[in-house]
Design a protein that fits this description.
The chain has about 90 residues and is an all-alpha fold. The protein has one domain. The chain is about 85% helix and about 0% strand. The protein is built from 3 helices and no strands. Helix 1 crosses helix 2 and helix 2 crosses helix 3. It is elongated, with a radius of gyration of 15 Å. The two termini are about 15 Å apart.
């Protein structure tokens, strides 16, 4: 049970961080300032931040036309879900 709480905490922290990064990048884009690289945003998404990335894409409407994000973020989310399903299968079989 402790591991589940740790996993939820990591996902929550990384989602908030990733959402903030997407929102900051959107704001900087509008102001014509220095931007957060797409690579950084995708690495954050991969590193347990995909819920925040998906939420930011919907609420902030950022990276919604960039193919790498429109396809990549759902693929990353799917990979995470498959890994967790497999881990659950291993534990409870």
């Amino acid at each position: 049970m402790v591991y589940v709480l740790i996993a939820v905490g990591v996902y929550l922290a990384m989602s908030v961080t990733t959402f903030t990064a997407f929102a900051l990048d959107k704001r900087r884009a509008k102001l014509g300032k220095w931007r957060i690289s797409e690579k950084t945003l995708l690495v954050m998404t991969l590193a347990f931040g995909w819920p925040g990335a998906m939420l930011a894409m919907k609420l902030v409407r950022h990276k919604t036309k960039t193919r790498k994000f429109v396809v990549g973020v759902p693929v990353i989310a799917g990979l995470h879900l498959v890994v967790w399903a497999f881990a659950g299968w291993l534990v409870y079989r």
